[in-house]
Amino acid sequence: MSNQNDPNTLPPKTCSVDRMVTVKEDVEKVLAGKKTATRRNGRYADVGEIMTLEGQDFVVENVYSQSLGELTDEHARQEGFESLEDYKQSILSMHPGMPWLPQMRVWVHEFSPVKK
């Protein structure tokens, strides 16, 4: 992917932005400013799209593909976790039987509150 922010170079979305963050604990982390990204197995948003959680708007600033093997503690902190191991255990507990394969690719959606 040459320009990951150009929607013309990204594959079609597989879901809608309103389904991007739905787990109650994750919604709370976003609203508290502790979660600024979410990783999904599909592409849920385009850059510039707005996600609304409990009446607060967040703009998607970046969308790109990443392998699980590339994840670091800093990426886990974007997700609202203290460490990569904490993030990994959370994901595996939500998806029983899912393997954590370093080559598995996910879509990263980075977002921030809309300034009013």
TrEMBL record:
<dbReference type="Pfam" id="PF04266">
    <property type="entry name" value="ASCH"/>
</dbReference>
<protein>
    <submittedName>
        <fullName>ASCH domain-containing protein</fullName>
    </submittedName>
</protein>
<dbReference type="InterPro" id="IPR007374">
    <property type="entry name" value="ASCH_domain"/>
</dbReference>
<feature type="domain" description="ASCH">
    <location>
        <begin position="20"/>
        <end position="115"/>
    </location>
</feature>
<dbReference type="InterPro" id="IPR015947">
    <property type="entry name" value="PUA-like_sf"/>
</dbReference>
